[in-house]
Amino acid sequence: MKLIKTALDGCLVVEPKVHGDERGFFYESFNAGRFAEAGLDLAFVQTNVSRSAQGVLRGLHYQWPNPQGKLVSVLEGEVYDVAVDIRVGSPTFGQWAAAILSAENKRHFWVPEGFAHGFAVLEGPATFLYQCTALYDHAADAGIRWNDAALAIDWPLARPSLSDKDQKAPFLADVAPERLPVFA
């Protein structure tokens, strides 16, 4: 397994060691011991799978309180995956990192607790796998507007397909401080 640092401390691209031949391939998508050796002592309590058509953009989502860390990967298709640091007091508050995840490259993206997360489907349909460190909490469910000019995320889709929830999400500057995670 290879860990690739991003501009945001804690957000990592994970490249698994893939074993394959003309018959197919095998790789470990998660091994608690190997991740712990790399400094990521993770305990997942919920796994989610979503499927989205090409051109769909989902996000930017987070939970507060009861934040979720997410190890995300793509089983089918290709996505542009984004994490945004929304931890009040963080030296990288409002900054983002992105990775291309696909069934072909088999990369994973570690999005730590306290970050908002979203993705745009570049080649679809895309089947997305989320391994989460906390259970989904409807009362803590929150979001930031995907096209917030203050974040200046370089999304590769000019006119994405969005849910009503994502179209109406607030800009980061409009979120009450108590509804944002705190940098520790």
What is the CA-atom radius of gyration, in angstroms?
16 Å
Low-confidence stretches: none
Task: Report the end-to-end length measured between terminal Cα atoms.
Answer: 28 Å
| Top-tier CATH class | Mainly Beta
CATH topology title? Jelly Rolls
Give the name of the CATH superfamily: Jelly Rolls
Shape verdict: globular
Q: Number of helix segments?
A: 2
Query: What number of structural domains do the residues give?
Result: 1
Overall average pLDDT? 97
What would CATH call the architecture?
Sandwich
Percent helix: under 10%
Strand count: 11
* Main sheet record: 9 strands, antiparallel
Which structural traits does this protein have?
single chain; 184 residues; mainly beta; Jelly Rolls; 9-stranded antiparallel sheet; globular
Q: How do you describe this structure in short?
A:
Helices cover 5% and strands 41% of the residues. The chain contains two helices and eleven strands.
Report what the structure shows.
The structure is a single chain. By secondary structure, this protein is mostly beta strands. The chain has one domain: Jelly Rolls (Sandwich), CATH 2.60.120. 5% of the residues lie in helices and 41% in strands. The chain is built from 2 helices and 11 strands. It has helices at 32-37, 164-167, and strands at residues 2-5, 12-15, 19-21, 24-26, 46-52, 57-63, 70-85, 96-102, 108-111, 115-132, 141-143. Strands 1, 2, 5, 6, 7, 8, 9, 10 and 11 form a 9-stranded antiparallel sheet that branches. It is globular.
